[in-house]
Every structure is written in structure tokens, then in C-alpha cells.
């Protein structure tokens, strides 16, 4: 691996990308004015790290526990739980793998074994079996763990709600579910496959689901494809952006159409438009002479245009910085003023810290020259606060309320690291 400063090496340490399930894990900004730990909840995160830069003067993290797993296990962190999914062994037969998971040859066809472990202690809380899928991932909403099952093209085909304390199955549905923390209603949708990957758009029937029971409260249909969002607040909302540009804002609890408007043609996706506070920002082609693309802001009160400005940024990773829209580029971080579209830019050191998915942009990682992994907080600044370093070879890391969970170099053990208090 090259160590020359400024040379980019992209390392994918996650397992799920571009799906509805991932996007629903980004809490509404109005739910983020809480503690740093709560903003890290319900994360199934992938890490993208940059190689290079000076070593960070921070102590190494020491694991508090370790959980043995198979190399092919599906691993998720859901709040204060580590959830591991493996092919289920035959009834009455204990796992035979030396790694402590289940040996593939002994697995029961059509079943998967799900195990929940307390974090950061690593003690097993519960175990159950579910119908098998190509992969599973788990997220936390209140006292529920929502387990998403996916097929071979990463399209979500089902959701199972499990009691986080006992492992008892509360309900199950044959669709994907969009949720945000603090809201007891979600949107059940059918993902469609597109050139951009599964989960970029939804189609057909959309149901508002009572998360306590799994039952539908109301439903609507979209004529072709759409992008759907759940928005928290005093009155939670469902926002639907159809591929025609028609945008509907509905009452999440009852389904009443509150307002509607029309957006310009764009590459609509779960992160475009990007919802922030009481507004959303859309990246779209710019009709102005000599401009390629634009950023336009709209309010949720009447889907009215607030402002529009040329978008000159390239390779931007959008982030929600406590209710403000931020963007990361290789050169630094810019903040967008939602009142007037003004940009404030802060130059980085050329080797940016990049965020852990699902950490509400508060945790960032960087690969050091000796291949240890540096961890820092304050991901919305150009100078994050170092927290510690992980051993060389750490990968497939995920953030929870109080802990980081990373797979070791041999792939057969999950190391658990306690996160310091903010």
C-alpha cells in the first residue's frame, strides 16, 4: 500500500450500500438535539478511509469483549445490541464451528440463527431462528430491533420486528420499512432495482405502519417510482417525491395530503433531495447559461422554492450537521446556509477524516501509515478530536450507542470497544 501523502486508497469496510434500509437510519435533524450517544444509535455502518497523514497522538482502544463468528456472518449493531446472523444448525445440535458460529455443512436449509449480544459487555441476550435470506441487517427503533432481509441483488424483501429485550418476534412483513428514531410509524415500501442499485427508488403501494403492531394505518400508491422519506417533528410527516417531480407532504399518522408541489427534473434518490430541519435541498441540472448543476432549497410548508444557486462542488458527500447541511470534499468541509444558500468553506489538511455511516456524522476514521485505524469525534469539523486507535487489520466496523464493533484480521472474531463519554 502506498504511503505517499495525498494518494487516495478507498477501503470499503461495510456490507450494505445504497439501500433504503441504510438511508432510513439517518435520523431526522430535529431528533438530533440530544446526546452524542443517542445520535449514534441504530447504526449499520460502512467505513471509507483515506490512507496517509501523520500518526494521531491518541491511545489504543482496548477491547472489552470478543464474540466469535463465522467469516460469512451478517453483523449489525442496533443501539445497545450486537446482532449476528448465521445459517442455523440442526435442531438439538450445538454449533460445531471452532469460531463459535455455525458450521456451514450442518446448517438447516431455509433457516438463519440470529443472536443478540449486550454492548459493550458482549454477553448473549437472546437467540432465535428466522427464515433465511441472502443477507440480514438489523437496526434499532425504540424497544424494537428491525431485521431487514435482502435477496441476491440487495433488494430488501422483508422486515421482522423483534423485542430488543427478549428476542421475541413481534411481527413480520414482506416489504422494506423506512423509520426514524422517536417516531412510532414507519413507511412500508417495495424497493425497485435500477441502474444505481437496489433501494434508490420505491414503487407501487406505500403503507404507513404502526411499529407497535406491524399493522397498516393507511396506504397510497405511486403511479411509477418515487423516493420516500419519514420526517420527525411535532407532527411527523411522510414526504413522497415522484419521478415526475410531484412532491407530496402527508400526515404520517393519518395519511391526509397536507400540501403538494413540483420539483425540477433531477436524479431523485434517498439523498436527493436531502431533508434538513424544515426544508430540503435538491441537486438538479441548472438551466442557467454556462452552469451544469444547481442546488435549490424548498420548504415543507408549501413545497415552495426558497433559493437556488449554481452547484460548483464536485465529489461531495452530504452530511447533516445538527440541522445544517454540510458537504465534504477532498479539500475540506463546507456548510450551506439554508436561509440564503450562502456557502462557508473550511480547508482541511488534504487528507480528510471521513464519517462512519450511521454515526450522525459525529464519528470519523482514518487509516494511519502503519495501518492502524484512527478514530475521532467531531466529524463536522476539519480538525476532529482524536479518541483512540484500533489495531491494524480492523475492518467491518460498526458504531452503536456506547461501543464500536470491528471484525479482526482473521475474520473470525468481533472485537468490542467502549466509546468514551462525550
From TrEMBL:
Pfam families according to UniProt: PQQ_2 (PF13360)
Domain Pyrrolo-quinoline quinone repeat: 115-256
InterPro entries for the chain: PQQ_rpt_dom, Quinoprotein_ADH-like_sf, WD40/YVTN_repeat-like_dom_sf
Organism field: Asanoa siamensis
Identification of the protein by name: Pyrrolo-quinoline quinone repeat domain-containing protein
Amino acid at each position: 500500500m502506498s504511503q505517499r501523502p495525498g494518494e487516495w486508497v478507498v477501503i470499503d469496510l461495510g456490507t450494505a450500500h445504497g439501500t433504503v434500509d441504510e438511508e432510513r437510519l439517518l435520523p431526522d435533524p430535529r431528533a438530533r438535539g440530544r446526546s452524542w450517544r443517542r445520535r449514534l444509535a441504530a447504526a449499520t455502518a460502512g467505513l471509507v478511509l483515506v490512507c496517509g497523514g501523520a500518526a494521531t497522538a491518541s491511545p489504543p482502544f482496548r477491547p472489552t469483549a470478543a464474540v466469535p463468528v463465522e467469516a460469512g456472518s451478517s453483523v449489525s449493531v442496533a443501539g445497545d445490541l450486537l446482532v449476528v446472523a448465521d445459517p442455523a444448525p440442526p435442531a438439538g445440535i450445538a454449533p460445531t464451528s471452532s469460531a463459535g458460529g455455525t458450521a456451514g455443512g450442518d446448517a438447516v436449509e431455509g433457516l438463519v440463527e440470529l443472536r443478540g449480544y449486550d454492548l459493550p459487555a458482549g454477553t448473549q441476550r437472546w437467540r432465535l431462528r428466522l427464515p433465511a435470506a441472502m443477507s440480514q441487517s438489523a437496526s434499532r427503533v425504540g424497544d424494537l430491533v428491525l431485521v431487514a432481509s435482502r435477496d441476491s441483488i440487495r433488494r430488501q424483501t422483508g422486515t421482522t420486528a423483534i423485542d430488543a429485550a427478549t428476542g421475541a418476534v413481534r411481527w413480520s412483513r414482506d416489504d422494506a420499512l423506512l423509520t426514524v428514531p422517536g417516531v412510532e410509524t414507519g413507511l412500508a415500501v417495495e424497493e425497485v432495482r435500477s441502474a444505481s442499485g437496489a433501494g434508490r427508488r420505491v414503487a407501487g403501494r406505500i403503507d404507513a405502519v404502526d411499529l407497535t403492531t406491524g399493522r397498516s394505518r393507511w396506504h397510497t400508491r405511486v403511479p411509477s417510482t418515487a423516493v420516500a422519506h419519514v420526517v420527525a417533528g411535532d407532527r411527523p410527516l411522510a414526504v413522497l417525491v415522484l419521478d415526475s417531480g410531484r412532491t407530496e407532504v402527508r400526515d404520517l399518522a393519518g395519511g391526509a395530503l397536507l400540501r403538494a408541489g413540483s420539483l425540477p427534473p433531477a436524479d431523485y434518490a434517498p439523498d436527493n433531495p436531502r431533508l434538513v430541519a424544515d426544508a430540503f435541498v435538491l441537486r438538479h441540472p441548472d438551466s442557467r447559461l454556462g452552469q451544469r448543476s444547481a442546488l435549490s432549497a424548498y420548504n415543507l410548508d408549501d413545497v415552495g422554492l426558497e433559493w437556488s444557486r449554481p452547484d460548483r462542488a464536485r465529489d461531495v458527500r452530504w452530511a447533516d450537521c445538527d440541522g445544517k447541511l454540510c458537504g465534504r470534499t477532498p479539500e475540506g468541509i463546507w456548510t450551506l446556509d439554508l436561509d440564503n444558500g450562502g456557502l462557508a468553506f473550511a480547508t482541511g489538511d488534504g487528507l480528510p477524516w471521513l464519517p462512519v455511516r450511521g454515526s450522525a456524522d459525529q464519528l470519523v476514521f482514518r487509516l494511519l501509515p502503519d495501518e492502524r485505524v484512527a478514530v475521532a469525534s467531531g466529524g463536522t469539523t476539519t480538525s476532529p478530536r482524536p479518541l483512540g486507535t484500533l489495531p491494524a487489520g480492523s475492518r467491518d466496523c460498526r458504531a452503536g450507542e456506547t461501543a464500536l464493533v470491528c471484525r479482526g484480521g482473521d475474520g473470525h472474531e468481533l472485537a468490542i470497544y467502549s466509546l468514551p463519554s462525550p
